[in-house]
Specification:
The strands form 3 sheets. This protein has a 7-stranded parallel sheet, with helices on both faces. Strands 8-9-10 form a 3-stranded antiparallel sheet, with no helix packed on it. A two-stranded antiparallel ribbon has the order 2-3. It is of the alpha/beta class and 259 residues long. It has helices at 36-51, 67-76, 94-108, 128-136, 189-195, 205-208, 245-255; strands at 2-6, 9-11, 32-34, 55-61, 80-84, 113-117, 140-144, 146-150, 153-159, 164-170, 173-177, 200-203. The chain has one domain (2-219): 3-Layer(aba) Sandwich (Rossmann fold), CATH 3.40.50.
């Protein structure tokens, strides 16, 4: 079984994040890593292949640093990687990203299963899987908390607030997984060393047959006009209890219409 996992390089939530001069997220001058939610997709792909046979290819779109996301997936156990990188890609939105991923997957050839995380930890939009499935002409089954591949079909369990659904789709298909599906493995020393010898291809727009006018900030469906930093938190009101602390507190809460 040939499985493709789409992964994303995202700014580290623990680092000081900011925006570039064009009001897009700064992905160059900030520490980044493989999106945590994508690790579940990589882990699920590895489990499927280990239970049978096949190959796991990871694909990412992003700047030079995005190669680190592919590297982490290879260290976990994926077989090979593809990094779509081109200066014209900077500022691409979800539709453009789905286009690039779709063309990369088509270039890889016959694929049985495409796996993604439920969302990226920086954008949290959850729309790229649906867009990607549409571009590839594949059935999509999203938000999988459990996944089973049986012959020519894939079955998932989707857990909602009130009920769980069991959904089956014929292969090839696209599945997005939640953080409830498994526990991603940590790269072992053996895996880290083996990853150094695994093939990683870098493709630009010309390799994918995508025109620069279809991607980048100029092609984005929406743009950010302005960004304002959140003001620093102000010190709260201190009430000194001189026997009437309860009354003062009640008056304060009432003035704010909390009571």
């Amino acid at each position: 079984m040939n499985i493709v996992v789409c992964v994303k390089y995202v700014p580290d939530a623990q680092s000081e994040r900011g925006f570039a001069s064009d009001n897009t997220t700064d992905r160059v001058n900030v520490d980044g890593l493989l999106s945590e939610l994508d690790e579940y997709a990589v882990e699920e792909a590895l489990k499927i292949v280990e239970a049978g046979e096949g190959e796991v290819t990871v694909v990412t779109v992003g700047p030079d640093q995005a190669a680190d996301a592919v590297k982490k997936a290879l260290q976990m156990g994926a077989d090979k990687g593809v990094h779509v990188s081109d200066e014209a890609i900077s500022g691409s939105d979800a539709p453009a990203t789905s286009l690039l991923l779709a063309e990369a997957i088509k270039k890889l050839g016959d694929v049985d299963l495409v796996l993604t995380g439920m969302a990226s930890t920086d954008g949290t939009m959850s729309v790229v899987p649906a867009m990607l499935a549409e571009r590839l002409g594949l059935p999509q089954v999203t938000f999988a908390s459990e996944l089973t591949v049986d012959g020519g079909s894939v079955t998932i369990r989707r857990d909602g607030d009130a009920a769980s659904q069991t959904i089956t789709a014929s292969l090839p298909a696209l599945v997005s997984v939640t953080d409830q599906i498994n526990e991603p493995r940590y790269p072992s020393f053996k895996g880290i060393m083996a990853a150094k010898k695994k093939p990683v291809e870098t493709w630009g727009l010309a390799d994918l047959g995508v025109d620069a006018s279809q991607v980048g900030l100029a092609a984005a469906w929406t743009t950010v006009d302005a960004i304002t930093k959140r003001p620093p938190r102000e010190q709260g009101t201190i009430i000194t209890d001189e026997g009437d602390g309860g009354t003062k507190l009640a008056e304060f809460l009432a003035s704010r219409k909390f009571i």
